[in-house]
Amino acid sequence: xxxxxxxxxxxxxFPNSRYYDIQDTLFKYFGLACTLLGVIILSILIIDLxxxxxxxxxxxxxxxxxxxxxxxATVMVGIVGTLWIMLFTALIALPIGIxxxxxxxxxxxxxxxxxxxxxxxxxxxxVPSIIYGLLGLEIFVRxxxxxxxxxxxxxxxxLLILPIVIVSTREAxxxxxxxxxxxxxxLGATKWQTIWDQVLPAAGxxxxxxxxxxxxxxxxxxxxxxxxxxxxxxxxxxNGPMDxxxxxxxxxxxxxxxxxxxxxxxxxxxxxxxxxxxTFLMNGLAIFMRQHWQRKVKW
Length: 299
Prior knowledge:
The chain is mainly alpha-helical. Helix content is 75%, strand content 0%.
């Protein structure tokens, strides 16, 4: 009897559960409405883009020679420049960023200095891209004498996405249960064997998600490349990382959108469609690799 009385007294302090059920239902529909709103707005923008630029999408537009005429303008040099920039950005940023994330999470000691580094890395992810452009101009173009080359642009974009890669790598590693590490140690594996054979495969999906986000940001950046010397119009595709005459698709789009002639609007819309296709292909490949990796790893 005493226990029942105590239970009744405790229940008096708890609000009616129906109130929380209503809250849950309202929030569920509110979240659904916000999601649908975002999808509808994005769909409207893409449909409008396709209507404006679909007429320009053909093989000549993709592979033809550059021209200053809106009817004959092409995106071939921009595609080649974008691929060069993305290739070297990935080769520079991903190994460094993933390695730094592994060190900070698995090897780094917990201290005030480590906390300061973590906070600064997280803050760097939100720094405006134009700041990285100015940094790249001073360090890579002037101090290291790389000139206005593809390599200088790639190094600048690598700095831009490096904090994103590091933070996402650390979060992916944190998501791996520590029991997996303990089991590996119990079987006699070293720390590096545990990280390489157990932790990284288990965290691979999260790391690839960070790679997708970082490369998606890099492929659409214009401001840093303007600062380090990317041109708005070139007549030939770049031939190597030290080529200092190049352009990328975002630069071409920026150039065409700023033109006073209305004839450039379909051309710019067509270039945006091509850039979206390249981005979707890059993301699709990374997502395929992530899912393939996750199917192989069971823990």
